[in-house]
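CORE FACILITY INTAKE
Project code: CF-77B
Contact: R.S. (postdoc)
Sample description: multi-component assembly, two entities in total
Requested service: structural model of the whole complex
Turnaround: standard
Below are the sequence entries exactly as provided by the requester. Do not edit them.
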Amino acid sequence: MSRRYPLANHPALDNLSLHIASGEWLFLVGTSGAGKTTLLKLLYREELADEGRVIIGGTDVAQIRGSQLRRSMGIIFQTFRLMEKKSAYENIAYGAEVLAVPASEVRSRTTEILQLVGLADKGHRLPAELSGGEQQRVAIGRALVNRPRLILADEPTGDLDPENTDRVLEILDQVHREHHTTVLFATHAVTIVNRLQRRVVRLQDGRIVSDAAAGGYWANEEVASS
Amino acid sequence: MNGPNWWSVYYRLRDAREGIARNSWASLATVVLLTLTLLLFGGFLWLNANLVQVAAMLERQVQVRVFAAEGAAAQSLADPLRAVPGVRGVQLLDGAAVYAQLAPVFGEETLMNALPADAFADSLSVELVDPAQGAQVVERIRAVAGVGEVIWGQGFAEVLYRISNALQRGGIVLIIGFFVAALLMTLTAMQLAVLNREVEIQIQRWVGVSPWGIRAQFLIEAFLLGLFSSILAAAVFLYLGEVIQGAIAALVPFMSAQLSSPKLVIGIVLVTGPVLALIGGGIASQRAIGWGDK
């Protein structure tokens, strides 16, 4: 698939072809402007490819409604985008409530998620009363509350210290292993990629320049050259 | 949907209530301004409705009264007058009947004190095809043999007729103006509400809520503000309407019967508030959310 923005010197994605297996964990790495975010946007149908197709679970995403597509996804960003006047519990529950999930089910799911993200004792706190790492865990909880089959994470640890980065990784890894959830994790962080030893796809100028299968890692030399 | 629709309604109503409470000052300002606009709108509707009544009265005033010359009978003039170009119809008015008609208007005792029972001679009431052409027709009537005195509103009637028409046309223009003002005001308030909930809108998009699902919260919120404003305006209008009707009845008793009831206008105001607010909420949310389900 290809994607070109008006006035840009080169395509954001240039004839890119990528297959991700169900239940796979894939790191998407590359410098700023390499095409990571654009690829994720095409996956959650924020944008459509100029050429080519995006197929998820056998369905061409251009052929279905964006809202329908995103109900099976959990989307996480570097910015937490929490509602300031709602507690951590309410922020997570909101993700299910807006999809008309019955209140008892929302309660059970939210309680479970708060435990998963390690905030069971801080559910009543407002975002301003939480640390940056805790706020990101709330955002992750919100993305997980509808039990997504695919998690799209765009630099989710970009603003976090190493300790909170580890915590976020542990949460996503646990969900990935226990529920066989597919994870696409876009990042700059070499330590994360090397630590988990998963498939790594490196993008540069909208093209795939390397695709290391499961167990592969993003070597420091590659970082230096990218 | 993951659940029955009433859960969606429940959550949307809760969010709308929270939204109104969260932006309490903006919500209050919207309700106050919308209420004032609806009051003005309703007031003008009522005035306009009454102008229609007054215009009808004025049109009746443009009828020409013809008295027979001395020695001639009023009844004998009916056919010659019907033949005059510009005359729509002729009706014989019995003097005693005219006196009897005035009794309930001024009160029998007052009338008897002012005029004797035979004060009115028999006459003919001539209805014109076009009141604006009254002067020419009256000249023709005066030329009919046996016609004595001819009374009509002359230029005054024509002027009043034109003024009533102009007022009705102006009323429609003003009502449209009030509509536009109220719509713009609601639109601004809802635009603020949408801006305040930018994060919520984004979250809903991420978890897969359809554009109509996202828009619903703002439409419900707008509807509630509009409904509250219109109920408030209707209550004030009902009260003021009674006060004004009472005052007119006390000052000009015979006019009170001509006034139209404010009930229809109150009904229109009750519907207009929510409709205006829904349009404003729809436009404001459309700008932020769009129609397409990307």
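Facility notes:
- Chain B has a mean pLDDT of 81.
- Chain B has two domains: 5-58+159-289, 63-152.
Invoice: internal transfer
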